[in-house]
Amino acid sequence: MSDLPEPERPEAITRVVRGARGASALPNPRFGEYWPRVERHLRFTTQDTGNVENYVVCWREVETHHDELFGRLGDLPLRSWTRTTAVRLLAALSHTSEGRPRALSTLSCKVNAMAAVFRRAGFDAHPLTDEPLYPRPNPFRNKMALLREVFGNQEIQQRSGATEPRPYARDELDRLLHTTRTRSPADHLVLLLCVRCGLRRSEAIALRWSDFNAAARSVSVRRKASKPRNVAVRISSQLKTENSRRTVPVPADAWQEVLRWKSHCTTRAAEGCSPYTSYTQPSRRRPPSEPSAYLFPPRRPANTSAPVLDPDAWAGRLKHDLARTGIDLHGRRHFAHNLRHTYASELLARGADLSQVAKLLGDTLAVAEHCYAHLAQSRRLRDLVDSLERDL
Question: What residues contact 233, with CB distance under 8 A and at least 6 apart?
């Protein structure tokens, strides 16, 4: 009997049998064993390496944290994590070791890092049964709802350190658009896409010509321009949220500017020049016969490997334009991001509800309610007062 050859077993069964001695191959790995796999996956699929580094710092802190109820979280199996575990973890990490409250941006990064782990565990399957490693809903889903569940709206407002969104007034916006139009058509078009379509500056700069649909007069958001530390601008398909991948209608004035910019880029490319009048293509390259695939190629293609404009440089030029037009920036720390708030406030003023605004902005309904509920409420109160004036 001992001379008989051992029957061959399928590869999947062999992995399960060998993994029975350790927890790494079982369908319920420990958190400390699983997050390095997620890190390798993110480094392979994304170009935003700075964001991955922040995630690694969060995972290591969570791994070494000891909870009174669950013990060391690095040894806790994935399937033992629930919404209760997420709430307890976030409450425990809400203060530093010195007792100071953490900023809302830091807590938001921790929630994003943990959500990435369980999102990946929902895709990874056991090699034999094809059962997901984490079959339940992500315990760190809906970041704003989780933060409100732990802290409440008032403490979230205090931790954020930011005031209510201050959209630009119409006269301010008209002056700003006029200033950017006379200075740079490219910067003017980026500004117009942000304020007329609600795009983030990183989303507007990363647009391609193929993203526009002439029949529907719309634009599809599929990627963003990111700039990690000490790295050139990169294009990433990893958007800010899952809802950021969307299709947005383009108003008539913005659409005309897009067509005008495309005609300008085509003409300059036929001449072998850059679309920016101050710079030309390097002589060592062949003169292009067609414009770049991106709307906004780099200003100095010979000095950088970046495929598009620098979003931070564009924001700096926008700040100078705001100063030249005399627009007050007091209380507007995120002066470029306030263009989205202007877009949302104008939609609400025209009768749109929060669900429609959230869909156009690429946010969840919870985020839209947190940011714009007061604008919608003030509009309803104003309409109510106007109805009293008509009826009385």
Answer: 225, 226, 227, 298, 304, 306, 307, 308, 309, 310, 311
Write the burial class of residue 352 (CB in 10 Å: 0-12 exposed, 13-18 middle, 19+ buried): middle
Q: Of 388 and 167, which is predicted with more confidence?
A: 167
Instruction: Specify the CATH class of 170-382 in words.
Output: mainly alpha
Residue 362 has pLDDT above 60, yes or no: yes
Long-range contact list for 205-208, CB < 8 A, 24+ apart? 205/295, 205/296, 205/308, 205/309, 205/311, 205/314, 206/235, 206/294, 206/308, 207/294, 207/295, 207/296, 208/293, 208/294, 208/295
Domain ranges of the chain: 11-160, 170-382
Q: What do you get for the CA distance between the two ends of the chain, in Å? A: 103
Q: Write out the H or E segment, with its range, that includes residue 121.
A: helix 104-121
Q: Is pLDDT at 128 greater than 80 in this prediction?
A: no
CA separation for the pair 66, 262 (Å, rounded) = 57
- CA 127 to chain centroid, in Å, comes to 33
Q: Residue with structure tokens 């100078």? A: 320
279-297 pLDDT, tens digit per residue, is 554 444 444 556 788 999 8
Cα–Cα distance, 137 to 32 (Å, whole number): 20
Count of all residues that appear for the chain in the document? 392
Give the separation between CA 54 and CA 15, rounded to whole angstroms. Answer: 33
**pLDDT per residue as tens digits for the range 69-94:** 889 999 999 999 999 999 999 999 88
Say which range, 9-23, 166-180, 242-256, 331-345, has the weakest mean pLDDT: 9-23
Asked if 223 and 237 count as a contact pair (C-beta separation under 8 A), the reply is yes
Residues pairing with 236 in the sheet: 224
CA-to-CA distance for 204 and 221, rounded, in angstroms?
8
Of 345, 332, 350, residue with least CA distance to 373: 345
114: tokens are 């943990």
Comparing 15-24, 255-264, 304-313, the range with the smallest average pLDDT is 15-24
Number of helices (H) and strands (E) in the chain: give both, helices first. Answer: 15, 7
Range 210-219 average pLDDT: 95
